Amino acid sequence: MTAAPSLRADAQRNRERILSAAEAVFLERGADATMEDVARRAGVGIGTLYRRFPTRESLLAEAYSARFLAVAAESRARANALEPLAALRAYLEELVVYTSVYRGFAASLGAILQSGTAGCEAMGTEGRRLLDRAQQSGAVRADVSFDDLVVVAVATSLATEQLGSPRTRIAHLIGLFLDGIGARPARN
């Protein structure tokens, strides 16, 4: 990720107003809220919004970046105290729980995680680190990729979105997946 060029003071204020408005609109209406709703709430023109955030996913990613930074930091802080598979489980469960903050967010999670925001980069780096650690320990099959983890997080998020993210259901679904990717003894 490259450093963003510094913005003029008025452009920075607009950016902050857009992100604040996006947070409010996405919390109220979900991730499917229109860009026009966000621009109207922020008090900026639609062109200003699209210059800063050319897609809904880029706006969602930036609005969500701080949450992802927090999840990644929490994961790094607890990971060494857990067995590799338990650390990966906790990461996936937290990713799914946090995905439920905005209704409809799960459908865009894969694209959002590739957006390049600081939070998305931190989540990807942490997920890859935990996956590698679990694979190195022999707890997870070598053919599992980070993209596979994202697919599972999206599927689990979609499956639990209507239920209000009950942690027990999330833990159950993540457990089913992790049981499926566990390393298996070689067959003779």
How large is the radius of gyration? 18 Å
Largest sheet: none
Class per helix and strand makeup: mainly alpha
Uncertain stretches of 5 or more adjacent residues: none
Please tally the helical runs, counting DSSP H or I stretches of 4 or more residues. 9
Q: What's the CATH class label of the largest domain?
A: Mainly Alpha
- The appropriate CATH architecture of the largest domain is Orthogonal Bundle
Based on CA inertia axes, which overall geometry fits?
elongated
Quaternary state of this entry equals: single chain
| Chain-averaged pLDDT | 87
State the total count of DSSP E strands.
0
Percent of residues in beta strands? under 5%
As for the CATH topology of the largest domain, it is: Tetracycline Repressor, domain 2
